[in-house]
Every structure is written in C-alpha cells, then in structure tokens.
Amino acid sequence: MDYVQQRVAQAVSNQEAASNAFLTPLNALLLCVLLYTAYAFLLRPGPSSAAAAQVPKEPPAIVFRTFTPRTLLPYNGENGGPVYLAVRGRVFDVSRGRNFYGPGGPYANFAGRDASRGLACGSFDESMLTKDLDGPLDPLDDLGPDQLEALKGWEQRFEEKYLVVGRLVAVGEEGKGEEKAE
Amino acid sequence: MGFFDNLLLRLDESVTGLFGQWNLWTTVIATVFAGFLTYQIATRQEPDTHPFLLARQAEGSPVRQPGESAVYRSQGAPHGMPLNSGLNVKEPGASKWARGRDGDLRDVWRQAVAGVQEDGPTKGATGRLLTVLGIDKVVEHRLDDVTRQINLIGQHILDQGGNRVAIYLPNSVELIATLFACSFYNLTAVILPFDQSDDAVISMLRRSAADTVVTAPGSFPFDLVVKNYPSLRQLIWVVDEGSKHLDWNEVPQGTGGSVNVSTWQDIVNDSPVDAGKALPPLEGQKEPRDVTVFWVSKPGQPEEMVRFTSANFVSAIAAQLFAIPTAQRMGPSDVFLPADSLANTHTLVLTLAALFSNASVAFNSVAAQAHDLAVATRGVSPTILVATPAALLKTHKETSARLDASLLGRALHRLQTRQLTQNGVMPAAGDGLLSGAYAAAVGRPAGSKLRLILTAERVGADTPRLSSAVLSDLRAFTGARIMYALTAAKVAGAATQTAFYDYRVVADGDGVHFGPPLTSTEILLRDMGQWKTTDESRAGEIIVRGPCVAGNQAALGVAGRIRDDNTLAYA
Fold first, then answer.
1. How many Å lie between the alpha carbon of A125 and the closest alpha carbon of chain B?
2. Are residues A27 and A87 in the same domain?
C-alpha cells in the first residue's frame, strides 16, 4: 500500500512535465515503427518474387532406350536402382512395384529379364527365362491359345500401370530396329 | 528482495516516463500508423491465380526419345487425352452436356447470327459488326445484311464458275464476308496479305492458282495482273462510298477481255431484296474446303504459301477460346478490334473466336499498317485488342518517357508494378484517387475499357521481342492483361501463348518467354547443332504438333529452350 501511495504521489507531481516537442523519445520510437512498416509494405521486395513458388524441379524425362538381354540385366533393383522387365519386346519400368519385382520379392526372377513366357504360363520358375542372353529372343511359338490370352491380359495391365521406357531386341539387332523406326 | 523491488520500480518509472511524453504529435503519428495498417489489411487481395499454377505451366511426357526432349502439353490437355480439335457445336435444342461435333467455319457464322445459346441474362444476344472510317465515323452493319451479302457474293462467284477465290483486302467486313461466302459455297479461299508490291501480288496469284479476285481499287495493279496472269477469270471490286458513282464495270481498252469485272455493291443491290436471306442448310452440306494463306517473313523474302484445312482453323479457334478463363470469356458486351492484319492466321483465328463468342467486332482498315495503338483505337473503345509488337513497343516508349518526367508518376508506377508482380493482382482500375492520378500520368484515355491485349511474335519475321518487364509495364499503363503468343507459318493460330493471369517478370536470359503450349498443340525440341537436351537443360529446334498444324507436324527452324516452369523461350 505504501508503494502504491508513493507512486501515485510521484505521478501527480510529474504530470506537468510533458512537453510539446515533436522529437521526444516516444515520438521518435513510434516514427521509426511507422517508417519501417511503410517500408515493409511498399518498398521491400517481398517473398513473392522469384523465390516464393519454389516448386521442386521436375525429374528429367527417361530416355527411351534399345535394350539387349545383357544390358537389361543390371536393372533388377539392386542398390536401389530402377526395376525393368520386358514383355514381348517392350521394356516396362516397374520400380513402383518394387515390393513384387524388386530384390526379395515374389517375382524377383522377372526383374531385368524377358518375362513374356513366365507371364503366359503363370509361373515364376527359372526355367521360364531365356537361358542364353546373347542368343535370339524367345519367339513364344509353342504357346497355346489360352496362354497367349493370359499374356495379352498381363500386357494390358502393365500398359495401364507402368511406363514403357524402351524396347528389347536380341544382341546384334539394335541397328535393324532403328532403321525400321526411322 | 530489495533488489527486485528496485528493479521493478525503476522499470515502472521508465515505462511511465516514456509514455508520459505523449503529446499531440504522438497522437498524430499513432493515428497515421493505425490508419495505414488498417488500409493495407483491408485492401489486401488474393493473387488472381495460385502461384503454384504459374510455377509449372506445362506437363512434360515422362519418357523422351533420344535426340529429342520430352513432349510438352498444356495443363488443359494432359498426356493421354486427345488435343483440342473442335468447337463442340451443338444443335440449338440439344442439352448442355451433349457431345457436339467439331464444326467448321460455317458453324462460326451460324453461331454469330444465332446469338448466345446458354440460358442466362444474355440469351439470344448477338454482337455487332462495326467499321471505323476516318477519325470518328463508325458504321454498323446489321448481321442479316452481312448474311445476305455472303449468300449473294458466294452464289455469284459460283455461278460464274469460280473455284479459287483470292481476297486482297484490308481489314474489313468484306474480307470476313468473302471468307464465309467461300466456306458456305464450297470455294477455296486464298487470303493475300494486303499492301504488297505488284510483283509479289502477281507471284502469289500465280502460286495459288486463283481464278477470282475480290479486291479494292487503288491497291490492286489490275493492268499488270491481267497482262501477266492470264488465268484470272473474275474480279469483284469492293468500292467505298466516295467512288460509287464511277463505272467500275468498264474494262479499259486492250486489256482483259476475258476477265469478268463486277462490283460488290452491284451484285448485292441487283438481286431482289428477299434473295439471300437464308444461309445454306446444315443437312447435306459438303466437306469444307481448305483456306490458303501467305506468311510474310522479312521484306525481300518471298512469302510462304501454306494450306490450312478447316479442321486446322477450328482447332485453333477452340484453343483460343479455352485459353481465356470462363469468368473472363468474350461475350456480347465485348468490343473486339483486330489492329493487326487479318491475313495473319493468329489475328484471323482470334477474330473468328470473337465472332463465335458473339462479341462485337470492329474493323479498321488502316490499323494494321499504322503500328500505333492510338490510331487503331480511334472512334471505338475496344475491350479486347489484337496489336502488333511494334505498336506496343511504341506505346511503351512514349508512356515511359512521359512518366519519367514526373516524380509522382514514377512512384505511382512503382506501386502499380508492385501490385502486379508481388501480389499477383491486376491493379484496380477506375475509382480511387491514386488510380485516377496514375491514369492521368500515363495518358490513358478516359473511359478506356480495354481489358485484354493479344499480341504475337512471328517466327522468322524479325518482329521486335517484348520482354516480360515491358509486358508488365504495359499492363500497368493500359490497365489490361496481355497475352503474348508465338506464331509460325505452318501453325494456324498460335503455337504457345502466355497464361491469362501470368504477370511475372522473369530475369533469365533476355527475359522473353512465350508461355506454355495451347490445348491444340504440343511442343518438343529436337537436337540441333549446339542446342541439345540433357538432364539439366532442354534446348533444340522447336517442333510443333497438333490438329491446328498444317500437315500435323511442323519444324519451326529456330532454336528454343524449355524454362524451369515449362514455358517456351528462344535459346
């Protein structure tokens, strides 16, 4: 209570001390605040210039390549790389199905290989894959009509889900296909 | 606790002491501060479009062929969907959701005459056709009058055995009417660029194998043409008011006995008043014919002749209609003025789009050559303007010089530019003390309702380029949005065009960019010389594909690059 009385007495005695000058410390402070606000709204190059809409750059497009069974082999998902597999001469990027086709997955045998026969016969056996990587591609001549039907169905699902990133030709035939495509 | 008591006492005393200095000036400053803050917060506007939409304006295909870049398409026509190929023309009674047909040029005129089809306050409204003569005389043409002219002229040319009709006229109603007459009566139209040298005219006639010419006296070298181009069979003079009393049917001695000469007015007036009121019916109409245009590049180089099918034009019109957001579409309340030659497909496509949207269209025959916006907009106050880059640059230079002279002008211009680039908003026009002062400082005519300016860079024609800084200044000067397109010989309409709400000023290279592709085109870049596509940068020769390109694919012969926001720029 003493404190309060003391302060009130002090305040009363100090009242006449207010001056009418423009540049008192309070005025100077408020003026600085006003000028800074005006600068911030009117003059400062805001964050909306160049830096603001920082959408991350698009990943570069994948180049369409001509693969042979040898060059396709490394793309089986090892070391976090992309997973490719080939169906009837077209190479699909199945990295999004890494759980199935990547290393350790149930269909890992197909990764980096020509999977046409395996898909047609519905088997993930080693025997479905072409043994000789340098030889001609599997011609799929001996497949029955329902196996071909199954293969077509698989191919359609692949087209809908995955991206075509290249074509598969036998070793030594890369040039021939390109001439035809010209 | 004596220390903290003292501390608190001293703190209390100093704060009271500081605010004890409150005097009149403090009140004034505090009021100004509160007022400024309130004004800024109350007048803050959201950007016209989301900045993320401007940061990625086109979509690239995920796979690219070696030696080429990815294929880029507009966001309105993503990969996997077909490109915009038609006008979606529906019969008058059909439901709004029915799938329409692609249509052709005849449907453009039918729609212009029929009026707005959508239910709403403007149902049935049609646009007006105006011609600006001289300084302030504006003549209106009634739509059924023009329909009658289309029918009579088309029938006359057909009766006389015409097949390929060359049109050598300045921007005028007669040019459009002849074009529609050719499309309704199955004639091939050939549009010649106006005001060319005599040799150029003869060479173009020869290359296009035209047998009929519709032209205006005074600019067409009749004697020379008859002597050097014997295949000419028919000539129709479009005579203006002042010279109507002369006899234009008389052919001078010794010239052109084989040419059948008549005048537009005679053909129209000699038929009974009731003839020609109805357009040929929709059922049983034949396949639309092609339109041939000539692309003028640099002076001294021969013009390139390009044949466009009706489908090319219709696809280009549809893409231009899509490029403007629904809320800002052209409508019966708009006045469209082409201040660029109608022989350019870009201007022609935009004019047809305006007619299809039932906007009023004004023609000024001297606007295209004048390269001056003030001359072009005399007599009529357009809301949508098609201008040449040269005219825009001239306006920019004059207005900048005028602004630099006054300090207030420069400050206001800086504020306007800040609104545009930082806040992404068009500065509010019209009311307000500041906008009035600014409009006076830049010399904007009072009552100017201009809201959109369309302009085009012509590949290979040495048109001056407009950097995004110049475009932003022009937006502030005119109070209108500007769309800058890239046009080429073999592309009907435009290949790429900047977005309607894109007000950004870009700083890479020379600051010039042409925006993303339209919904009727897709762009790719093929490796050419030193410009290649790698994982970091995409450059090469610009290739345009789509239903609006003659022959479905065209190489433009210039090097371009795709910027980070997937817009096209020159390399």
1. 31
2. no
Give, in degrees to the nearest 5, the angle at Cα B402 between B398 and B404.
115
Same domain? A44 vs A117: no
Task: Give the chain A residue nearest B536 (alpha carbons).
Answer: A60
Radius of gyration of the CA atoms of chain A, in A: 37
Q: How many CB pairs under 8 A join A and B?
A: 104
Residues facing B338 on adjacent strands: B386
* Strands of the sheet with B568-570, listed across from one edge: B58-60, B72-74, B522-526, B538-545, B553-562, B568-570
Per CB-CB distance under 8 Å, the chain B contacts of A38 are 36
Q: Is there a contact between A7 and B12 if contact means CB atoms under 8 Å apart?
A: yes
ipTM for the whole predicted complex goes beyond 0.85: no
Contact A95, A83 (CB under 8 A): yes
A-chain residue closest to B24, CA distance: A20
The continuous run of DSSP H or E covering B444 comes out as none
Q: Please answer yes or no on whether B422 and A164 come within 8 Å at the CB atom.
A: no
Check CB contact of A32 with chain B, cutoff 8 Å. no
Cβ-Cβ contacts under 8 Å, B56 against chain A: 55, 58
Chain A: residue nearest B39 by CA?
A41
CA pair distance B70, A60, nearest whole angstrom: 9
Asked whether the beta carbons of residue A25 and residue B18 sit closer than 8 angstroms, the reply is: yes
Nearest CA in chain B to A165: B63
Residues A149 and A94 in one domain: yes
A5 touches B at CB < 8 Å? no
Using CB atoms, which residue from A26, A48, A58 is nearest to B26? A26
Same domain assignment for residues A107 and A142: yes
Contacts 24+ apart (CB under 8 A), B535-539: B535/A60, B536/A60, B537/B561, B538/B69, B538/B70, B538/B562, B539/B571
Q: Out of 3.30.420.10, 3.40.50.980, 3.40.50.300, 3.40.50.12780, select the CATH number for domain B141-308.
A: 3.40.50.980
Chain A residue with minimum CA distance to B66: A63
For chain A, what is the domain count?
Answer: 2
Show me where the domains of chain B are located.
Answer: 3-43, 54-82+318-391+449-570, 141-308
CB contact under 8 A, B55 and A55: yes
Query: Is 3.40.50.12780 the CATH classification of the domain at B54-82+318-391+449-570?
Result: yes
Full DSSP string of B403-420: HHT-HHHHHHHHHHHHHH
Q: Which two tokens stand for residue A102?
A: 């990547």
Contact A162, A96 (CB under 8 A): yes
CB distance from A63 to chain B under 8 Å?
Answer: yes
pLDDT by residue, tens only, chain B of 571 residues: 678 888 988 998 888 888 888 888 899 999 999 999 999 899 888 888 888 888 899 999 999 999 999 999 999 999 989 999 889 888 877 787 888 888 899 999 999 999 888 888 888 899 999 999 888 889 999 999 999 999 999 999 999 999 999 999 999 999 999 999 999 999 999 999 998 889 999 999 999 999 999 999 888 888 888 888 889 999 999 987 777 777 776 665 555 568 889 999 889 988 888 888 888 888 888 888 999 999 998 888 889 999 999 999 999 999 999 999 999 999 999 999 999 999 999 999 999 999 999 999 999 988 888 788 888 888 888 999 999 999 999 999 999 999 988 888 898 898 888 888 887 888 766 556 778 888 888 888 877 889 999 999 999 898 999 999 999 999 999 989 999 999 999 999 999 999 999 999 988 888 999 999 999 999 999 999 999 998 888 999 999 999 999 999 999 999 999 998 999 999 8
Burial of residue A59 (number of CB atoms within 10 Å: 0-12, 13-18, 19+): exposed
